[in-house]
Automatic annotation (TrEMBL):
Bifunctional enzyme that catalyzes the enolization of 2,3-diketo-5-methylthiopentyl-1-phosphate (DK-MTP-1-P) into the intermediate 2-hydroxy-3-keto-5-methylthiopentenyl-1-phosphate (HK-MTPenyl-1-P), which is then dephosphorylated to form the acireductone 1,2-dihydroxy-3-keto-5-methylthiopentene (DHK-MTPene). It is found in: Cytoplasm; Nucleus. Mg(2+) binds at residues 16, 18, 212. Its EC number is 3.1.3.77. This is Enolase-phosphatase E1.
Length: 261
């Protein structure tokens, strides 16, 4: 059977979510519209809560860093106690979130708010995490073979846990040994992969990273992480060079672990 041999030194598999474990359509057609449709009401309802205050404060700091970008939406601090001031500030946050999402930004500030907003949808059972059919059986097999399995996504750790904890396959959080998000660094920066290896307590050479994005694969490779690019229905196409330069898999079942015959 055709497959990709996992190098013997690999002891941990690191998984991207969107486009790797989970269809891009689930994120773009279900998770993201939920944010766009509910952000205004969410802010109105939770504005006085500490968690929401921290989310807004992080978004405001991000907006200051983004001030030089085309179309950037600033978030003013409310000057007075007036209802109009408050409504203007909330409206600015809503527009900032929608602007960031129109560009599919992966800022920690945006991802943190999204994670908090999805909590209600997942815990009430309105949304369930979706995975490609090969994902859960393969992860179970890897775990049974003694492999450690981690998740590294731009989605916040809280959002990752909601997705795996409330999924069409039930609560499968126990399958994962740990989670990483952009707080450790961005996925296109090789330093992030060195920090992940440090945090796991292994060498970068002991990790195999599976992702749909070649910029992420390239950053990981630069840090000596093994990579395979995952080709899934609905993912962006790869160039001929990308197809030549990376090991490609279209299902997790194609991975052959060192001990397997
Ligand atoms: C519940 S995870 C949310 C997915 C998300 O917001 C995202 O940006 C996914 O990015 P990835 O790094 O997994 O491709
Ligand atoms: Mg991805």
């Amino acid at each position: 059977m055709v497959g990709l041999s996992v190098p013997a030194e690999v002891t941990a598999i690191l998984l991207d979510i969107e486009g790797t474990t989970t269809p891009i359509a689930f994120v773009k057609d279900i998770l993201f519209p939920y944010i766009k449709e509910n952000v205004q009401e969410y802010l109105q309802t939770h504005w006085e809560e500490e968690e929401c205050r921290q989310d807004v404060s992080l978004l405001r700091k991000q907006a200051e860093e983004d001030a030089h970008l085309d179309g950037a939406v600033p978030i003013p601090t409310a000057f007075g106690d007036g209802v109009d001031d408050l409504q203007q500030t909330i409206q600015a946050v809503v527009e900032n979130v929608r602007w960031q999402m129109s560009l599919d930004r992966k800022t920690t500030a945006l991802k943190q708010l999204q994670g908090h907003m999805w909590r209600a949808a997942f815990t009430a059972g309105h949304v369930k995490g979706e995975f490609f059919a090969d994902v859960v059986p393969a992860v179970r097999k890897w775990k049974a073979a003694g492999m450690k399995v981690y998740v590294y996504s731009s989605g916040s750790i809280e959002a990752q846990k909601l997705l795996f904890g409330h999924s069409t396959e039930g609560d499968i959080l126990e399958l994962f040994d740990g989670h990483f998000d952009t707080k450790i660094g961005h996925k296109v920066e090789s330093e992030s992969y060195r920090k992940i290896a440090d945090s796991i307590g292994c060498s970068t050479k002991n990790i195999l990273f599976l992702t749909d994005i070649t910029l992420e694969a390239s950053a990981a490779e630069e840090a000596d992480v093994h990579v395979a690019v995952v080709v899934r229905p609905g993912n962006a196409g790869l160039t001929d060079d990308e197809k030549t330069n990376y090991q490609l898999i279209s299902s997790f079942s194609e991975l052959r672990l060192p001990s397997a015959t």
